[in-house]
Design a protein that fits this description.
By secondary structure, the chain is of the alpha/beta class. The chain is built from six helices and four strands.
């Protein structure tokens, strides 16, 4: 997977390198993300920008930590031929102030928290969700935890490794 990373108002880390490592780890736990044709755009931006996106596209008038906007349906993704032109998987946007506050509350680095949120966004783009049932949420959390372990980040949910 190729990542197009745009950084606004985020400093002090190699965000492009982080996204590349996270994308490789996510592809190890979700094979559909390993398709070499896939491209994802990741925007590291402000709470104000994410608030605007959330209001415009999700009708929620507040910022949130991460938003994901899929361009492919899960069925199309899993059946995507590996040969052919690039295919946009979707867009992910992270809100700096919210992410920084959450990282501080959790006692983790901003980079580790951002890595978790990018994994979370990628899994959403691959068709995973966590809102319909506890089982669905547990399955997605297990994938996130496993992907993060591949890049040396501990379980973000504070439980024993799954």
């Amino acid at each position: 997977m190729d990542a197009i990373v745009e950084v606004e108002d985020w400093r002090d880390a190699d965000w492009e390198g982080l996204v590349a490592r996270v994308a490789q780890a996510a592809a190890r736990v979700e094979p559909a993300l390993a398709n070499p044709r896939l491209q994802v755009s990741v925007l590291f931006t402000s709470d104000a920008e994410v608030h605007t996106l959330n209001r415009e596209w999700r009708e929620r008038d507040r910022p949130t930590n991460v938003l994901s906007f899929p361009m492919l349906k899960r069925e199309d993704l899993v059946h995507l031929d590996p040969d052919g032109p690039p295919e946009l998987l979707g867009d992910i946007a992270l809100a700096h102030e919210t992410c920084a506050r959450e990282a501080a509350e959790k006692g983790v680095s901003l980079a580790d928290h951002a890595a978790h949120l990018v994994v979370h966004g990628l899994l959403h783009l691959a068709g995973h969700d966590h809102v319909d049932s506890d089982a669905q949420a547990e399955a997605m959390e297990a994938l996130e935890t496993k992907a993060l372990a591949f890049i040396g980040i501990g379980n973000p949910y504070g439980e024993a490794d799954q």
